[in-house]
User: What shape does this take?
Amino acid sequence: MMKCPLGILMLLVLWSLVAGCTSSPSIVTPSTALPTETPVSPTPSLAPSATPKPTYFVPAPQNVATPVTRQATPEPGLTGQIAVLLSSSLALIDLKGGSPKFMGPRLPTYTQYSWAPDGSKLAYLLQADLWVLDVETQHSWNLSSTNDRWELLPRWSPDGQRIAFTSRLLELEEYGRTEIAMHGVFGGQLTVIGADGSDYQVLDKETILYTSSWSPDSRRLIYASSEGKLYIFDLKSGQRQPLSLADYGLQEDLYIYGADWSPKGNEIALSFSTRPKPEDMSVEQGCAVLNLKNHTLKILKRYNATLGLPYEGVPPGETLCCLGPDVLWSPSGNYILVNVKAMPRTQVPTGLSVIDAQGKREIRLTEKEWGAYSADWSPDGKWVVYIDNGDRSLWVINPFNPTEKYQIMGEFCCEGPVAWRPK
Assistant: This one.
């Protein structure tokens, strides 16, 4: 089995944020198992360490957001507010209608943001640092203020006390550069900080490329390393524990792309890919649910990703490795939102769907072959908001009756991810 080079993997992560797509899948009944292989030796546990804060990096000046004239289209019965990137600026859209409320400076299109559980604040990334915005007062502040680290992928803890994210040391040539100049630079170590800016800690030396996920009690984090291994980090003990896929009936050398912790606490949704050989033109990808209590497994979805046109001088397997669908639990913990995104020069069954946690039924939400660029659940789990990956229009859909859907904003409106305000 081949090892995916980190450079190729970073390019694929960038592509997963901005790419188009291929064909549409049909509704299927998922399979229930994959072959097993001999497990590998676990990685030793690591204790947390503090991060210094040097003072010689000078960030670029902030840009002021330019309002646009588009308005949200109100629909009877729809309520709530959605954070999204419009005209490169963070904005809040009220589903009752009206003009978007712009909230701060311009941000790079690959930015990510996370709501505080009470819906009062947003954590986001700006000028390589972690920032927090008070939505009502419009006051924002630099929470991390690290002059030597690049921070990405924030995730607020369920109890509101901490934020998890990735961070890494800046390279010498990166000092003084803006996000635009560093577009596509991903990867870092699992890091946490107090919601008040205290106790900045780099928890693990392993590089991770995707968002970590909190346990419902805010005591643990689950994440996948850039090597495709799955870990749980216990913040009380300061130790990490590798999860052996073989214990759940999965082959141990699968590449784990990402994971999301169920609100019920005893299940993990994860996405995976087989590891191709250099000459392989196809890999299997999919998603599954692991039950941490009884060590059982449910395969929710599996499909092939086939390379159509290899890059010159790059083995096909290096292009195919290390990606999978996005997975996100519903607030009830009964359903998983699965988003199969496009891959460069590769045929995949692109699309957004909802699958029950038992893997018995899949409901396809997107009809077009473009699929979804970004998606999120409503706080009550009755709706899903998504950005169309073709024309970048904004939609709200009933995930259990997909014929009930509403276009909130027209084409080419949205540039960044969507995040439904919790309350």
